[in-house]
Amino acid sequence: MKVELKFTNYQLSFLNAFIADNLPASVHGEMKDRKSFIFLMNDVSCKLLKKAIEKRQEAKAFKISLKYYEAFALHQFLYLYMDYDNTERYNVTREILGVINQKLA
Question: Which residues contact 9 (CB under 8 A, 6 or more apart)?
């Protein structure tokens, strides 16, 4: 099942930076379930980066198609690493979580 998410360039740039800041560079010494989550998020990150390169000149929101489990993994990743101290990052993260939540329901 595919999930179509609609993001702006700013939200997509934020997502890419958020994932890059919080995704571990190495999986050495991690448990199996954590490794699989990291590899899955790495795949999602690659899709988001490709879309960011394609749509870097777009001014309006555009759609990104992810498989259901990829969208769910992205949702969990954002929820897990949400920054409650920085209000701008918190607000953008909440907006993105809201978009993903609507499509997953």
Answer: 52, 55, 56, 58, 59
**In whole angstroms, what is the distance from residue 51 CA to residue 15 CA?**
12
Prediction pTM value: 0.87
pLDDT band at residue 83, thresholds of 50, 70 and 90?
A: confident
DSSP state of 30: -
The conformation of residue 57, written as its DSSP 8-state character, comes to T
Q: Identity (one letter) of the amino acid at 79? A: Y
What does 58-88 look like in DSSP terms, one character per residue? --S-EEEEEEHHHHHHHHHHHHHT--SS-HH
Burial class (CB in 10 A: 0-12, 13-18, 19+), 87: exposed
Look up residue 62 and give its amino acid: F
Q: State residue 73's pLDDT score.
A: 94
